[in-house]
Amino acid sequence: MSEKINFYDYNDRIDKIRKLTKEFREIIEKKFPEITEIDVELITETLGIELKHYFRKF
């Protein structure tokens, strides 16, 4: 799995993180409409930070 990650350049990884975060946000909003915008923002921001750490530059 890590071999495939090395083929992507850093900008591609950041774009993928943004896309995943946006998709996750949409899922949260559909599945849990009672969650406030602040909570959704906190969840997606935390996810983005974790993904950036995971896909950091090699």
Question: Gist?
Answer:
The protein is mainly alpha-helical and 58 residues long. It is 79% helix and 0% strand.
What does this structure look like?
The protein is an all-alpha fold and 58 residues long. The chain has one domain. Helices cover 79% and strands 0% of the residues. The chain has helices at residues 2-7, 10-31, 37-54. Helix 2 packs antiparallel against helix 3. The longest helix has 22 residues, at 10-31. The chain is elongated and about 40 Å long.
Helix content: over 70%
Judged by helices, strands and strand pairing, the structural class is mainly alpha
Shape descriptor reads elongated
Low-pLDDT segments, ≥5 res = none
State the order of secondary-structure elements, H for helix, E for strand.
HHH
Number of strands: 0
Radius of gyration, whole Å: 13 Å
Q: What's the assembly state of these chains?
A: single chain
Q: What is the average per-residue confidence, as pLDDT, rounded to a whole number?
A: 78
Amino- and carboxy-terminal Cα gap: 14 Å
Please outline the major beta sheet. Answer: none
What is the total number of structural domains? 1
Binned strand content: under 5%
How many separate helices? 3
Question: Can you tag this structure with a few keywords?
Answer:
58 residues; elongated
Question: Which helices and strands occur, and which strands form pairs?
Answer:
Layout (H helix, E strand, L loop, with lengths): L1 H6 L2 H22 L5 H18 L4
